[in-house]
Amino acid sequence: MTAPESSAAAPPPLHPRAANVLTRKPLTVPRAARIIASVTVAVTVLAAVLIHFTDRQNFPNIGDSLWWAIQTVTTVGYGDLVPTSAAGRLVAALVMLVGIGFLTVITAAITSTFIETARKRIEGNTSDTISTKLDQINARLETIEAELKLAGSTIAMNLCRASREAPHHGRSARPGISTACAQLSRVGLSSGRACHP
Q: What is the pLDDT of residue 67?
């Protein structure tokens, strides 16, 4: 005996057309609501026909059957028409479950739409505000950098002039000024020429 292959392909879906219809687009809440609404309408009409043929005593015509199916699927259930046969009660149970699912999905779709609209409105305002503030901060930083570069250049020039004018007597009168001059030259705040006589 051979062991079954672990890489065997999955069996094809039982209803490939139905699977294609459901999977060709991403399932969103509004799309799910449309699918559930369509299924609910189909089940309501089918239930009306089935209850008419399974419990003719209580549902003598299709109008009464449809009225009962609509009441049941919307979970109203006035009680004026009630199935008494086992098959009729089975149909009623199916319609009740579909009705509960329908109401749940429709409520979720409406809530999701409200939440998504509010989220987009809030995010739109927040991202615009943040973007504007970042642009303002960037402009201020560029101004500060330009002013620092200008101020640093002026300081470097003054330090270098002071270094040139100081009496040397064989040694530097102000060794800190020469070091500062060299550091300023390294970072690009001085051309370096002003520091040397």
A: 92
Element (H, E) at 168: none
Q: Within the chain, how many helices (H) and strands (E) appear?
A: 5, 0
DSSP string, 75-118: T---SSS---SHHHHHHHHHHHHHHHHHHHHHHHHHHHHHHHHH
| Model-wide pTM > 0.70 | no
pLDDT at 194: 47
Contacts 24+ apart (CB under 8 A), 31-36: 32/105, 32/109, 33/105, 33/106, 33/108, 33/109, 36/101, 36/102, 36/105, 36/106
Query: Does position 192 have pLDDT exceeding 50, yes or no?
Result: no
User: How many Cα neighbours within 13 Å face the side chain of 160?
Assistant: 20
